[in-house]
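Justification of computing resources. Each target in the renewal requires a structure prediction run like the one illustrated here; the chain below, 332 residues long, is used simply to show the kind of job we budget for.
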Amino acid sequence: MLEIKDLRVTYGTGPSAVPAVRGVDLVLESGRKLGIAGESGCGKSTLALALLRLLPPSAKLTGQVLLDGEDVLTMKWGRLRAVRWAGASIVFQGAMHSLNAVHRIGDQIAEPVLLHRGATPAAARRRTVELLEQVGLPASRADAYPHELSGGQRQRVMIAMALACDPRLIVADEPTTALDVMIQAQILRLIEQLVADQDISLLMISHDLAVLSDTCDRLAVMYAGRIVEEGPAKSVYDAAEHPYGRALSAAFPRIGDLASRRAPRGLPGDPPDPSSLPSGCTFHPRCPVALEECAREDQPLREAGPGRQAACVHVGAPVPAQLSAAPAEPRP
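Resulting structure tokens:
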């Protein structure tokens, strides 16, 4: 239902232009769940906003974003406005900043129903109560203001708003940000249940490979605006082909692996500045197994097994012993 073809997003023009997304190709089938992982600054959120043309006018978008065969990037305003609710909707990162602080929760959930469904106020109110119950909140919360809710409750409200007009696709941008572990688990289970019950497609963005591998069917790893690996979620998390994917996976402790709990592995260095990207493979300055050719030539995505792709010269070769980064110092 969603096909992204050579999507590119650039901020600014001329010599000061900054490429935030660089030639992304992805496919999401109806009723399936796709995760996108990567460090802060890799372009995940820009990609999410680009899918619904929610970026500022200064951003230049090229390529195609086909939603049920229609190109979102070339839609007229009226059609785009309808698609943003009935075709696809987004759960923004940071619920407190996404909700209007001076309006009651019920009014904010009812607004898209009134605008896009042409419902009466009474019907919109009934729909609001139904949505609150769907996400595990009592109907009385409709009269509350955002500051009167906990972080987990606000996130549930954001999910209710996203479901208001029965979209076929939900884009969830870091839906568990700033929530404690128990609440994160509740929100993730809620999203999974709603997606399954209502046959909704899900594109979830996170820096946490462990969360995405447990929630999604497929997983794409993003670095410096590009997809560097993509495949079945469990396979990518358990045995990534790209050194960056391996480093991300190794950063999380594993249940039953005492060594990973004592000293989670890390990755030295920082993501590159998008305005001044390294030559060749943009990951090579941080890569523990980079070759000379990696600094000269960028690596395209290549087949790395059934249904898998990775953009690395080592794809298909035995995994070098030093592929994971050096372990971080044990936490006290």
